User: Which sequence fits this backbone?
């Protein structure tokens, strides 16, 4: 692989640089730009400038506008109210098998978000120890269609967790689940590499093939809502803005 002088300069640039929303340029952005590879500095910075400024609600609205679907899995809620976004690494297992969680932590790449489909909620497959290990391995978050535990620790741990339930008991380190294969939850098909965003309002999953269109639409939603907030500050009512004010 050849490396150009620009690539060398990009490697040394500030990855924390952010651009004003009105100046964000999403030309050529893809889901791969969620990770900095040494060559995609401009795409990476523009994408993160957007994603750090939009909510799961706004991304859902954008996705609905281009697909007629929300991308939401209603039963999965935030455990510790932290925002996160990234690329999905899937896993599927039984509720008595927390060993698959350990396997997923070791197999996923830094920057991934672990997404578990579990066959029940009677036992927890994730807790404080798994969150600590995953965080230290560079994994960004864990999402569970099933139960988590150790909420006394998770509520204060700097690692986002989303789950459909919680309970105090766990199973065993069986390691019998599957990793990084397609799963389906509540009618939503989730593939490895799909996009995830979650925050205080809930979670949204976007198919990787619709990622770019959704990001462009999310930027438009963000700009439109900023204009509405400005109009309200100027004394225009929401009913007037949406055309429902009585004449």
Assistant:
């Amino acid at each position: 692989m050849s490396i150009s002088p620009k690539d060398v300069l990009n490697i040394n640039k500030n990855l924390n640089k952010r651009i004003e929303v009105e100046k964000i340029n999403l030309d050529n952005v893809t889901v791969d730009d969620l990770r900095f590879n040494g060559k995609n500095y401009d795409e990476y910075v523009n994408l993160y400038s957007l994603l750090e400024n939009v909510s799961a609600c706004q991304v859902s609205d954008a996705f609905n506008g281009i697909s007629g679907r929300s991308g939401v899995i209603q039963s999965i809620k935030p455990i510790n109210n932290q925002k996160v976004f990234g690329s999905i690494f899937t896993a599927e297992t039984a509720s008595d098998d927390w060993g698959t969680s350990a396997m997923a932590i070791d197999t996923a790449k830094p920057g991934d978000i672990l997404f578990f489909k579990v066959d029940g909620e009677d036992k927890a497959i994730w807790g404080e120890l798994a969150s600590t290990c995953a965080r230290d391995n560079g994994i960004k978050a864990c999402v569970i269609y099933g139960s988590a535990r150790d909420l006394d620790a998770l509520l204060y741990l700097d690692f986002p967790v989303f789950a459909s339930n919680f309970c105090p008991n766990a199973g065993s380190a069986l390691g019998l689940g599957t990793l990084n294969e397609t799963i389906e939850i509540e009618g939503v098909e989730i593939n490895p590499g799909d996009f995830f965003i979650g925050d205080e309002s809930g979670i949204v999953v976007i198919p990787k093939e619709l990622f770019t269109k959704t990001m462009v639409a999310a930027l438009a939603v963000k700009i439109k809502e900023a204009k509405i907030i400005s109009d309200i500050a100027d004394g225009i009512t929401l009913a007037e803005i949406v055309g429902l004010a009585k004449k």
Summary: The chain has a mean pLDDT of 93. Residues 112 and 139 are 5 Å apart (CA to CA). Residues 5-69+208-237 form one domain.
